[in-house]
Amino acid sequence: MLPTENRLRRRQDFAEAVRRGRRAGRPLLVVHLRRDTTHPHVPGERTPPARAGFVVSKAIGGAVERNLVKRRLRHLVRERLLRLPPGSLVVVRALPGAGSADHAQLALDLDAALSRLLDRDTHGEAEGRVAR
């Protein structure tokens, strides 16, 4: 289970991550990452946690299959929360192939997408580029 403080629940937060965040696509999923630019880190203050949400459409399959994919993705993201920048919003959208994929395949795609987004953020912002 993903801790309550790390859950993305409001429609506005999903829209913010998808519309204004960066995107990395893989064969089984698409990951959107929106860094928190509104709360600069002040020493001594508590930083807001990274929050994640999931989009698993009916294209994946029936309710049982969709819930299985959501549980797998929640578990995988929970293990990677420390890699995410504080205050960031992450939306993981499962693509139709995710329903037949196993845990390891989902993990590989999630890791590749997150690595790509996090590497882009560190390199792109340092050089003034906007990665999309």
UniProtKB/TrEMBL annotation:
InterPro entries on file: Ribosomal_Su5_D2-typ_SF (IPR020568), Ribsml_uS5_D2-typ_fold_subgr (IPR014721), RNase_P (IPR000100), RNase_P_CS (IPR020539)
Gene3D superfamilies (alphabetical): 3.30.230.10
Enzyme Commission number(s) from the entry: 3.1.26.5
Keyword Transcription: no
GO terms for MF: ribonuclease P activity
Reactions catalysed: Endonucleolytic cleavage of RNA, removing 5'-extranucleotides from tRNA precursor
One Pfam family hit: Ribonuclease_P
Keyword Isomerase on entry: no
Record's keyword terms, sorted: Endonuclease, Hydrolase, Nuclease, RNA-binding, tRNA processing
Function: RNaseP catalyzes the removal of the 5'-leader sequence from pre-tRNA to produce the mature 5'-terminus. It can also cleave other RNA substrates such as 4.5S RNA. The protein component plays an auxiliary but essential role in vivo by binding to the 5'-leader sequence and broadening the substrate specificity of the ribozyme.
Family assignment from sequence similarity: Belongs to the RnpA family.
Subunit text: Consists of a catalytic RNA component (M1 or rnpB) and a protein subunit.
Official protein name in the record: Ribonuclease P protein component
This protein's encoding gene: rnpA
